[in-house]
Amino acid sequence: MTCLTITRRGFLAAASATLCAPALLKAETRWPLTVTDAVGRTVTIPKKPKSIILGTGFNLVALSLIHPDPVSLLAGWATDMKTDNPFIYDAFRGKFPTLNEVPLVSNGLADGMNFEAALSLEADLAVMGMWQAEGEQGKRAIDYLQLTGVPVIVVDFNVDPLKSTARDIRLLGRILECDQQAEDYAQFFEKRVQRIRAGATGKAEDGPLVLMDAFPSPTRGSWAYGQTSLGELIALAGGRNIADKNLPPQGGPVTAEYLIAAEPDVYIATGSPGGTYTAFSIGPGVDPAEARRSLEETVKAPTLAPLKAVREGNVHGMWNFFNAVPLNVLAAEAVASWVRPDLFGDLDPTGSLAEINERFAAVPFEGAYWTSLTG
Questions:
Q1: Which domain of life is it from (predicted)?
Q2: What are the chain's domains?
């Protein structure tokens, strides 16, 4: 049985390599490959990786946009995608059943990696997220893996997504010898972002005030996105973020008094499937009716109901984990259409998602990723 399993995985890997043939650089000349990752580290990868550790499970989404069988590449991974968004995990496992057999080396959170488990896997590459690399536990994991001979690269789909997403997709494409597929996705991303940037240039000064509220809760209150991560999309669209001047770049908690004084014109909530962190349920596997209903309930909270945006029905919501995957271009289009419908009323994130599923996704992305109470 073991031999049959290995043979099948070997066959899938070989088939994937054929489908993912390099177009920009001949494979026989690229190894060893030296690259610069998202934090500016120079990393040399001796050979084409065939056994990869993912420090965050959400980076499986990135691999799946450029590789036809991303699961065949995994030596180990973190559980965070499985626990936070189980529908995505089930969808990947449905197409690639061997995902269930991939060893777990981390929960993807701040308490770090199981070093003994990671060492036992004999991986030839580890991929970590920017938010992990910025913490002490993440830095320890990088140092440990490199000391044991495992090269580590850091990719950024959350801190500075407009700058880094296309760049880091291209980086993964070089490393996996999926250059052309990565280039196609990078251009898909850049074309859409540039359209928004060009349309909003010079028009932000009098743009609407926006509150982007991460996992709103009647008990915890509101947490406003700042100038980075998903909050960056507000400025891109020509809006003004109520958190820009009084909170750190990443944002932070805000009081009811702060919100009432700010009087946002547009309210955008973020959430996750099943309302894991909030009553607002949205994302992979969520029915559109459930997403809308839960958003309606969310803004009935005493801290939110008095806001101008809520009173006037300019209320929207989207999947919070756009801040962890290169699908964030869909969030950019949705936010632009909500913040500046005068400029971007013709944007079609639903059409963009359909194109991603048709052209790029190894596993289709299904569910309600955004919703609105205005239509």
A1: Bacteria
A2: 15-193 (3.40.50.1980), 203-372 (3.40.50.1980)
